[in-house]
Amino acid sequence: MELALRGLRRYPKTTALAVLTVAIGLAASMTTLALLHMLSADPLRGRSQHLHLAWVDTVLAKSQTYRSLDSDWATYDYKRLKTPDAEALLAAHKGTLQAAMADLDAQVGGDKGEPSNEQLLATSSDFIPMFGVALQDGRNWTAAEDAARTPVAVIDSELAQKLFGTPKAIGRVVQIKHHAFRVIGVSQPYAPQPHFYGLNAWTFSGNERESIFVPFGAAIDVGLASSSTDGCDDVTEKSKQYIAVDPMHCEWLAFWVQLDTPQEVTAYRSFLDHYAQQQPLGSFGKKPQSQLLSVQRWLTLQNAIPDNVRLNVLLAGSFLLLCMVNVAGLLAAKFMRRGAEVGIRRALGASRRAVMLHHLFEAGMVCLLGGVLAWPLTLLGLALLRMQDQGFTDLARLDVAMFAALFALALAVGVLVGLLPSWRVSMVQPGLQVKSA
């Protein structure tokens, strides 16, 4: 270690160039890796492995005529259900917990200021415990209130502060589309990333989230409905540009179920298959279809992580490899300048192993210093990413795991770039070097 430290100081310009080269390569790689790490993280750690998206095809229309019209340039299939089917699955109660849900835009007003447009989640009573929404005050609504379509709401603390000037909002009334909903609970702000249970609304966002939760039956009663759908029955009037969703005949509700064991997953899949076989689809040329998808499988099918993020990781990794080749060349030139010194050490009894370890330690120190310099450069790169409005770049952060990964990668790079130069310098012939000295 002492010899390695001395070696760093002997050729300061070469050392500085090697450190800077390593730092730039590490910073480029860690910037892209940190973003990929945040985008691919488990959205609900400890819960998501038990959550499954359930879907059954019940649309009474030919397959080529009922696909989503969410936009005029692409078609989507977010595996949603019509209201009667969602209610039937809820009533069957084959899962530990289950929830139907849809993201909606709504004008929400309170005591203070003008009504504002808020993201609202129309759902059922199991959503809050099932998805881990933390209540600060009050309670969730009950299954009985679901069945009675009671106009109650759970709002988050920031919306409560905005509407009433205080997070203590239990018993207050919010106006949703000019209809009164009584606040029975106040939750902490809730924004899992990605927004896996409602990808049709958004996928990644640190700014958008549902700030109010209401029973979906009560939402239907006040005229709230989705502006998009996965398809409608033939009895529904359709438009090429827009579908006015009929909740009874259009697929607009996602249905998620909690299944805690593999046996429960198998049993629920059989239940869905049986339900699908009961649908009168034969006259429309369609076979029974049902699916039960885990969170990770669902995100994979929907390509939730943008392709350009993975491409940037590959490009940054290639750039790091190029930097490593250059650093290996710098270290080889630096180490071979000491041929005479190494030859004398070898003649005095130093082993090849000792010489190689000394230079390998020195290469490791160069790359660790590069890691230290790469830290602020990575933070700068992530800050530049956050300035780009791509819908997911606001998640670019360096957490503890990626901070540790930065220095682990620096050590790995140090070993890789130092192996060949260290081996070469350890192979010098002592006799020739001593004679030339």
UniProtKB/TrEMBL annotation:
GO terms for molecular function: ATP binding. Residues 15-219 form the MacB-like periplasmic core domain. Pfam families: FtsX, MacB_PCD. The keyword Disulfide bond does not apply. It comes from the Bacteria. It is a multi-pass membrane protein. The chain crosses the membrane at residues 313-333, 354-380, 400-420. Keywords: ATP-binding, Cell membrane, Membrane, Nucleotide-binding, Transmembrane, Transmembrane helix. Its main location: membrane. It is found in: Cell membrane. Residues 314-426 form the ABC3 transporter permease C-terminal domain. This is ABC transporter ATP-binding protein. It comes from Dyella nitratireducens. The lineage of its organism: Bacteria, Pseudomonadati, Pseudomonadota, Gammaproteobacteria, Lysobacterales.
